[in-house]
Design goal:
0% strand
Amino acid sequence: MKTVKYALLQTLPVMAGYLVLGLGFGVLLQSKGYGVGWAFAMGALIYAGSMQYVAIDLLAGGASLISAALMTLMVNARHLFYGVSMLERYRGMGPVKPYLIFALTDETYSLVCSKDPPADLDRRWVFFLISLLDHIYWVTGSVLGALVGQALPFDATGIDFSMTSLFLVVFTEQWRGSQDHTAALVGLGASLVCLAVFGPSDFLIPAMVLMTLLLILLRPWLERRKEAAHG
C-alpha cells in the first residue's frame, strides 16, 4: 500500500496533464468521425500522445501505411534514445520489463529518472505503478474526451497545441528541479540549431542525434562536475 501511495503522489502532476490532453485528443478524434472505441483502443494500444494527435490527421486523410510508419518514426524517434538511457535503470525488472518499455512516455521517463524511490520500496513495483497509473490517466482522458465530443458540439480549434504545452511544462519542472542545467541547455541549443538548418518539419531526428553526440562528448566533464559537487 505504501508503494501505491508513493507512485500515486509522484504521478499526480501527470494525471492533471494527461486528463486534459487526453480529453483534447478524444474531442479531436470524435470531431473527425472516430468514436469512443477508437479513443480507447488508441490510448491503450498506441499510447503515444503526440503521435496520436498526428494519427488523427493520418486517419482522416487516408495516409498510406508507409507514410504512417515514416511519420511515426520521425515523431517518436526520441524513444530510441530514451531506451538506451534506461538499460541500466530497468535491469533486473523481471516480467514487468516489457510493459515498462511499452509505457515509457516523456512524462513517465521524467518521473522514473528524476530520483530514486525510497530504499524501503521495491523499485520494480514503483516503476511499474508509475507507468501503469500514467497509462490509465491517458486512456481515461481520451475516452472522456470522445464522450464529451459525442455529447456536445465542440470547437476543436487549437486543441492540438496542448501536447506542446505539456512538453513546455515538463521542461520547466525539470529545469526548476535541477541545479545543473547543462543537459537542458544542450538539448535546447541542439534543437534550435537543427530547426534553423532543417526546418520545422524535419529537425526532430537530427536534433536528437546531435543532442546524443554532444552529451556523450560532455559526459566525462559532467561526471567530474557531479563528483566535485558531491565531494
